[in-house]
Design a protein that fits this description.
27% strand; alpha+beta; Beta-Lactamase; 6 strands; 150 residues; single chain; 6-stranded antiparallel β-sheet
Length: 150
């Protein structure tokens, strides 16, 4: 498994070559799923207007949640506060919007530029308590790279 620094270097390289933000996000969901096998669902949500997240590129099973109001779910909470959220047990969190019965934990990292939330990276794992501060730091660095392309 590659280190966070190695993955961030790959992301920077891919961002420099990508023709646009969508191509970059499509590439990154595959990269993250490959480099972190415990990431069972990896996706981007992008802001539409001031109060709705819309599903963008993702890797994993189809999600029934293609549009999420900011007042719903862990994704909505992260976008509303602009803060990364790690949930060790989604079954114990009443905010969780179930996408898969197999999901056990989730991390959501806002994509921000100049203090404004543009979207977020959302990752589920089939393992409980799968995400650490290393995951958070990795995804926050990736979010900053993506923000520069949005």
């Amino acid at each position: 498994m590659k280190t966070c620094n190695e993955i961030v270097a790959q992301v920077r390289h891919r961002a420099a070559r990508a023709s646009g933000s969508r191509e970059l996000m499509e590439d990154l969901v595959r990269l993250l799923a490959t480099e972190r096998p415990y990431y069972s669902w990896t996706g981007f949500y992008l802001m539409e207007g001031a109060d709705t997240l819309v599903l963008g590129p993702y890797h994993g099973k189809p999600s029934p949640h293609t549009r999420i109001p900011l007042n719903q779910g862990i994704c909505g909470a992260a976008a509303s506060t602009g803060e990364s959220l790690i949930v060790d047990d989604v079954r114990a969190d009443p905010r969780y919007l179930a996408c898969s019965l197999e999901s056990r934990s989730e991390i959501v990292v806002p994509i921000k530029r100049d203090g404004k939330v543009l979207g977020e990276i959302d990752i589920d794992s089939d393992r409980p308590a799968a995400f650490s501060d290393d995951d958070r730091r990795l995804l926050e660095e990736i979010a900053a790279i993506v923000a520069a392309r949005l």
